[in-house]
Amino acid sequence: MTPAPAATASANTNIALIKYWGKADESLTIPTASSLSLTLGGTRTTTTVSFDDGADGADAVTINGAAPGGTARARVTRFLDLVRARAGLTAAASVVSSSVVPLAAGLASSAAGFAALAAAASRAAGMDLDDRALSRLARRGSGSAARSVFGGLVLWNAGVDDATSYAEPVETAGAVGAGLDPAMVVIVLCEGRKTIGSTEAMRATMRTSPLYPAWVEAGREDLRSALAAVRERDLPRLGEVVEANALGMHAAMIASRPSIMYWLPRTIEALHAVRAVREEGLPAWATIDAGPNVKVLTRGADADAVAAALRDRLPGAAVSVRRPGGGVRIEDTP
Ligand code: 2P0
């Protein structure tokens, strides 16, 4: 018998500038609104997949050297089921995944993880998907993974069904170059695991927060404004809408019943530090995801100065600069 071919792919994580928070269709991961993100360099997850019958006929999954249990494993298996159904395969798979950034570094791991898994699994299954089809497939693993298929600034069109909900690069020519020059400063305040996962938290926000519809409505205008700012290479305009959109998302979460609060006291301290740095004249606008850490949109040319100013104001926090990175890549299988 010929061995099942293995395929390896890698993907960077991304940070949403205009957030995705809520699904119009849970089973297909169709979001309630379109979102905009920046893919970050140096944040790759690399994944090798082979449909080789796994271990004793069940999928064998290893992430950073350990076998995940519970929901994490079930999500991978469910995703592999989708690939098997499309490719007409029945064999269990072996999946080995490793990430260059620690899972607790304050950067989303599921976006890079499912983008790399979608690319490696589809290829190992003999499918040859173009980037759009790959983005649609990655979306089924984790919504934000649809965006990690591409590098730089990325728009995930919400769409209305499986065919129309996919991500694509925004203005591939030049937007990430000298004109807009976006970068991120990541402030890790706390490495603890989050209390409630995004999937569950967005479901609860949609169902119970009276502020959620208003945030979604405002988000449509936020996205238009953000895309106009990108076109005009206007980083301050982009930054203002980025910060407002994220704070609005958290306001909606906090207003959920019971309240969903990812913020810690240090989160608020960091928000004030970002504001102070901005008032000193440096470009810095905060965004926060489903956790207590703060990410700061800045200009690449000023990123080191912004990081230094934030380190001064936030002793004990781990502050690092991340620059734009590329999309999914097929790698040589080790
Ligand atoms: C985002 N986040 O746009 C938003 C902002 C967190 C806050 O996408 O349920 O892991 O797997 O589709 O993609 C995190 O949610 O959620 C996320 P699922 P995902 O980046």
Write the layout of secondary structure elements.
Elements: E1 6-11, E2 14-18, E3 23-25, E4 30-31, E5 35-39, E6 45-50, E7 60-63, H1 70-87, E8 94-99, H2 109-124, H3 131-141, H4 145-148, E9 153-157, E10 166-169, H5 175-179, E11 182-188, H6 198-208, H7 212-231, H8 235-254, H9 265-279, E12 285-288, E13 294-299, H10 303-313, E14 318-322, E15 329-331
Parallel strand pairs: 7-8
Antiparallel strand pairs: 1-6, 1-15, 2-5, 3-4, 5-9, 6-8, 9-10, 11-13, 11-14, 12-13
Helix pairs in contact: 1-2, 2-3, 7-8, 9-10
Bound molecules: ligand 2P0.
The site of ligand 2P0 has 15 residues, from α6.
Alpha-carbon Rg, integer: 19 Å
Q: List ligands, each type once.
A: ligand 2P0
Mean pLDDT, to the nearest integer, reads 94
Measured by DSSP, the beta-strand proportion falls in 15-25%
Beta-strand segment tally: 15
Low-confidence stretches: none
Protein architecture, described:
The chain is of the alpha+beta class. The protein folds into 2 domains: 7-174, 2-Layer Sandwich (Ribosomal Protein S5, domain 2), CATH 3.30.230; 182-322, 2-Layer Sandwich (Alpha-Beta Plaits), CATH 3.30.70.890. It has 10 helices and 15 strands. The protein has helices at residues 70-87, 109-124, 131-141, 145-148, 175-179, 198-208, 212-231, 235-254, 265-279, 303-313; strands spanning 6-11, 14-18, 23-25, 30-31, 35-39, 45-50, 60-63, 94-99, 153-157, 166-169, 182-188, 285-288, 294-299, 318-322, 329-331. The strands form 4 sheets. The protein has a 5-stranded mixed sheet. It is globular. The structure holds ligand 2P0. Ligand 2P0 is lined by residues 16, 19-21, 29, 35, 108, 110, 142-144, 198-199, 289-290.
